[in-house]
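Board notes, transcribed. Complex of a protein with S-adenosylmethionine.
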Amino acid sequence: MVSRFNDFGDMYEEMFRLPWRAHVETFSVWRALGDLSGEQVLDIGCGTGVYSREMKRRGAARVVGYDISEGMLAVAREAEAEQPLGIEYVTSPPVSEAGTFGVALGVYVLPYAEDYPALVGLCSVAARALRPGGRFVTLPVNPDFDGRHDYYERYGLRLFDAEPRGDGSRVTLHLHFGRYDQQITARYWSRPTVEKALRETGFEAIAWPPFGVSEEGMTRYGEDFWQPYLTCPHAAIVTCRRT
Ligand SMILES: C[S@@+](CC[C@H](N)C(=O)[O-])C[C@H]1O[C@@H](n2cnc3c(N)ncnc32)[C@H](O)[C@@H]1O
């Protein structure tokens, strides 16, 4: 399933221009991440490195982007070559540097854990990298997402259950914007299961802060446009702290 990401680099780069990513997701992720000045940051499932680059620009001392897709990392490395920021992109977790990171980010990577051990595995990549008190911010599929096929249509995506909803069940993410029309299979994880995996791997202070909209996004698109997404977003934000 993950090998499919090798072909999705350009699509993921362009997706950041979609209003929900530009004005809701990134706005809310920056709010959840807080001050990054001087931090060592691990971006788990960094994809093409959009967040990695921006975290470096926002003052992180060091950013390591980790992803298992060579295709996604090729796009990230190209951007680094064009505009060097000193970001390191790696295809395996930085185990030799355990406990040295202050922040870990994992945007839409937990949905690619195909079973519970894989979910725990991804959480432990963050847990091992972080020093005690280090912060982890991650975005799973919203455990309460609206499964109606057209609910997220106006935002350029569809998300629906491909089988009865339960831990590890398949959900279909249909991205259709610009020249793109792609279906991706991801996994649903319930709130108690996400929290269990985080606690088991050494996290505490688990919270699910709501999404917000940037001022620019509100002015440009208006409250009515955002209301369905804010009422029931397709993703969730989880924040927690390494014990
Ligand atoms: C939906 S993309 C998100 C990419 C990026 N975080 C973003 O927001 O654009 C999910 C990424 O997670 C990566 N991925 C999936 N499973 C992974 C794993 N076990 N370890 C590291 N990366 C993984 C995929 O290769 C893909 O690049």
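The mean pLDDT is 95. The first strand starts at residue 40 and ends at 44.
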